[in-house]
Design brief:
mainly alpha
Length: 343
């Protein structure tokens, strides 16, 4: 019995040491760094504590210096965007490199952007392609879109519209609305794929939920009957949707439909309203239409001062000279002042 007790006494320290080693092995090596990172999030967002950016940066930095990739990436984002702290592209690149070395896909994408734009690093499309590819192959939708645009434009790689379609499609499958529009344009023009107006219209319809460019292009397709049955009423609807989102081309085309009564009831006043919106965005054709309407009094009260202003901005010297002959000296001085002010 005494011998057994002696054995137990001898073995106990060894068992305790083994238990301690096992416990250490099972401990999360990132627990402390993660805790600091989560503390930084709390201070940054005011979650359970008062917002305190200085404390957030301190916590993120403590975590990042322990090698925690999410903290390194967050610091990189903050220095890159400059939303909450002064921009510092060099510091951003440094933190993104540390995170990307651990295969953080967000950091890889940011490095691609920085090399693409020469922000904090020497401009290098080749490096941009390499970093976008790493993140894109890991499934990051923004990197897939960014990589597709490089292949589409031939930046850093040989132009390869087929590869652009491949990566736009991957991004579109994850709901990227810019990819919807680009795929629509590529199917419409036969760029990298067989020309297919039906598929173009389908992609534009998916993109039109958020993208006024897609709505405008759908309007064009319905107006011309390309890929869809010609329908001027639907063209007007799509133009209206894009015009309400400040798409200047849609505002112009919608105004033309109201002026001619195609697809909508003829309404010179509405035509003038939409021409004015497009003219105020610098569309020269809309400016000339508006000048003509003010000059004739069709759709707007006759106003030679406004007619002169818009004709001048449209750079139509013939109409300007014609208006000068009809205007008083006072009207001409007022009009010239408006042109000079850009109003």
């Amino acid at each position: 019995m005494e011998a057994q007790n002696k054995i137990a006494i001898v073995l106990l320290p060894a068992l305790l040491a083994l238990f301690a080693l096992t416990s250490c092995a099972n401990t999360d090596p990132w627990a402390a760094a993660r805790k600091q990172f989560e503390l930084g999030q709390s201070f940054e967002n005011g979650a359970g504590v008062p917002k305190d950016l200085a404390k957030a940066l301190d916590a993120y930095t403590r975590s990042a210096e322990q090698g925690y990739a999410p903290a390194q990436n967050r610091l990189g984002e903050m220095f890159y965007t400059g939303e909450k702290i002064p921009k510092d592209f060099a510091a951003a690149a440094d933190w993104f490199r540390k995170a990307a070395a651990q295969a953080d896909i967000s950091a890889e994408n940011y490095l691609g952007l920085m090399y693409q734009n020469g922000e904090g690093v020497p401009k290098s499309y080749e490096q941009a392609v390499a970093w976008f590819t790493k993140a894109a192959e890991s499934g990051l939708v923004s990197a897939q879109y960014n990589l597709a645009t490089l292949y589409q434009n031939g930046d850093g790689v040989l132009r390869d519209p087929a590869k652009a379609v491949e990566w736009f499609t991957k991004a579109a499958e994850q709901g990227n609305s810019d990819s919807f529009f680009n795929l629509g344009a590529m199917y419409q023009n036969g760029d990298g794929v067989t020309k297919d107006p039906d598929k173009a219209a389908d992609w534009y319809k998916r993109g039109a939920i958020e993208d006024p460019r897609a709505s405008f292009n759908l309007g064009l397709m319905y107006e011309s009957g390309e890929g869809v049955e010609k329908d001027l009423a639907k063209a007007a609807q799509w133009y209206q949707k894009a015009a309400e989102q400040d798409n200047v081309s849609a505002q112009h085309n919608l105004a033309v439909l109201y002026a001619t009564g195609e697809g909508v009831e003829k309404d010179p006043a509405k035509a003038a309203e939409w021409f004015r919106k497009a003219a105020e965005q610098g569309d020269p054709s809309a400016q000339l239409y508006l000048a003509t309407m003010y000059s004739s009094g069709a759709g707007a009260d006759r106003d030679l001062v406004q007619a002169y202003k818009w004709a001048s901005l449209a750079n139509d010297t013939r109409l300007v000279d014609s208006l000068k002959r009809r205007m008083t000296k006072q009207q001409l001085e007022e009009a010239e002042k408006l042109v000079g002010e850009g109003n």
